[in-house]
Amino acid sequence: QKMVESGRADILIGPYKSAEREKRFVFSAQPFYRDSIVFFHLRSSTLQWNGDYQQVLGRRIGVVRGWAYGEHFDSQREQLELITLASVENGLKMLRAGRLDMLASNQRNTLPVLAALGLSSTVSQLTPQIDQQDGYFAFTRHIDLAGLPLDFDREFAQMIEQGRLAALATDWQVEVP
């Protein structure tokens, strides 16, 4: 993110869009994938979640550094006990060790790590989801890209119309908006 923001790189692949990020980047017109953002917890926990943040006040919630979790979650940050993590893997290990009560993450990045760590039967996700976030391509604002974002949007729209994005999404097992 810092490299694209400063102009040392031209494009960032996959960031979620937010008002703060729109000040730093030029986003593609269309997203190319969609993530479900959820809370993960130990199956042995009695923790309840129905979408009301009052239920999780005082709980230690892991969040990955630099990730966006949606406007509603962000509006609750001040009152939540958030612990910033370097990675999903660190969060899952801290959850297993009892150092976190919950991990806020997306399914796409978390489910494969759960399986790799052998935690699929120990950790589960709570419903409802926290939010849905769409992933975009983001271009730097600091150099003249000679129309690259517009050219990209035109070609990407064709890719969607021709069904190529849907085919790639199937191959890579990601949801598209």
Summarize the structure in words.
This protein has 177 residues and is α+β, with helices and mostly antiparallel strands. It has two domains: 2-33 and 133-172, D-Maltodextrin-Binding Protein, domain 2 (3-Layer(aba) Sandwich), CATH 3.40.190.10; 36-131, Periplasmic binding protein-like II (D-Maltodextrin-Binding Protein, domain 2), CATH 3.40.190.10. The chain has seven helices and eight strands. It has helices spanning 2-6, 19-24, 71-76, 88-96, 107-116, 148-161, 164-172, and strands spanning 11-16, 25-27, 33-42, 60-64, 81-85, 102-106, 123-125, 131-140. Strands 1, 2, 3, 4, 5, 6, 7 and 8 form an eight-stranded mixed sheet that branches. Helix 3 (71-76) links the parallel strand 4 (60-64) and strand 5. The longest helix has 14 residues, at 148-161. The radius of gyration is 18 Å and the shape is globular. The two termini are 23 Å apart. The mean pLDDT is 93.
Features:
D-Maltodextrin-Binding Protein, domain 2, 27% strand, 8 strands, 177 residues, 2 domains
| Strand segment count | 8
* Individual helix count: 7
The overall pLDDT, averaged over residues, is: 93
**How much of the sequence is in beta strands?**
25-35%
Biggest sheet overview: 8 strands, mixed
Content-based structural category: alpha+beta
CATH homology group of the largest domain: Periplasmic binding protein-like II
How is this structure best summarized?
This protein is α+β, with helices and mostly antiparallel strands and 177 residues long. The protein has helices at residues 2-6, 19-24, 71-76, 88-96, 107-116, 148-161, 164-172, and strands at residues 11-16, 25-27, 33-42, 60-64, 81-85, 102-106, 123-125, 131-140.
